[in-house]
From TrEMBL:
GO molecular function annotation: peptidase activity
Keywords recorded for this protein, A-Z: Hydrolase, Protease
Entry superkingdom: Bacteria
EC numbers, comma separated: 3.4.21.-
Protein name per its UniProtKB record: S16 family serine protease
InterPro entries with a match to the protein in the record: Lon_proteolytic, Lon_Prtase, Ribosomal_Su5_D2-typ_SF, Ribsml_uS5_D2-typ_fold_subgr
GO biological process: proteolysis
Domain Lon proteolytic: 153-236
Organism in which the protein naturally occurs: Streptomyces doebereineriae
Length: 263
């Protein structure tokens, strides 16, 4: 014998699949990573008890001011990110939702990703050293540069490493500091020929820079619009495309002579 459902019962029965779908969507893993402003480190000083830049084979100078490389902190490559997590981060100014593949290489294990990031950092450090010595016209057979930055991977500190080496060896070229005594932060990859490349996550990096006392932020020119999106008050953006342009901008900023580019 068949029985007829009342209207409330029918609505309840029909709602069950919908509730199940919503619950699945809320808690199912999604192909995203969540990121927030990470640590910064002054490449002219120490990080975790060790000098970031050590130079032998050439006379170095005592520097003032800071050159702070910036990072973002992202959820781990195997972290479960749900729709609820995405919604929470989407409307927060100090967090960002990024495609998983934009943060981590796809199809790799955690150990493979860590190895990849370490290799990228080593390549970045080698390129930074070569770019700095090329800029200063110093042979790398005479000058040895060691770069050490614990627990940081990837290539995005390249530009700041290069500027740090130049400041320690030559300053602004006229006896002053490349920083002009300021706390300057930034990001950007570097090639041996001095070309500066984009890195991603710049809106979060500007927040990390401001948090740690920076007043100036060097940003790859093609990422100006991203950097301006959530730019903290009191932080000045300087777009760069090359090492030469970055040094020229900092020298002009220090001396008050010449033009300083802006986003």
């Amino acid at each position: 014998m068949l029985s007829r459902l009342t209207r409330p019962q029918a609505v309840a029965v029909c709602a069950l699949p919908v509730v199940a779908l919503v619950a699945t969507a809320l808690f199912a893993p999604l192909p995203f990573a969540l990121a927030q402003p990470g640590m910064t480190a002054n490449v002219l000083g120490e990080n975790k008890g060790a000098e970031v830049i050590t130079i032998s084979g050439a006379k170095t100078r005592t520097t003032s001011g800071q050159l702070r490389m910036t990072t973002i902190e992202a959820t781990g490559p195997d972290t479960h990110v749900s729709l609820g997590d995405v919604f929470d981060s989407w409307f927060s100014t100090d967090r960002a939702v990024m495609p998983h593949d934009a943060v981590y290489p796809s199809g790799q294990s955690v150990k493979e990703i860590e190895k990849h990031n370490t290799a990228q950092m080593k390549e970045s450090q080698d390129a930074a050293t070569e770019a700095a010595l090329n800029y200063l016209k110093l042979g790398d057979d005479k000058v040895e540069v060691t770069l050490k930055l614990a627990d940081v991977g990837g290539p995005s500190a390249g530009l700041l490493f290069t500027l740090g080496i130049i400041d320690k060896l030559n300053g602004d070229g006229a006896g002053g500091d490349l920083t002009g005594g300021r706390t300057i932060a930034g990001t950007g990859t570097i090639d041996a020929d001095g070309t500066v490349g984009a890195v991603g996550g710049v809106a979060l990096k500007t927040q990390a820079a401001k948090r740690d006392g920076a007043t100036v932020f060097l940003v790859p020119e093609e990422e100006c619009s991203d950097a301006k999106a959530e730019l903290p008050k009191g932080l000045r953006l300087i777009p760069v495309t090359s090492l030469k342009g970055a040094v020229s901008a900092l020298t002009a900023l220090e001396s008050g002579k010449g033009s300083v580019p802006a986003c």
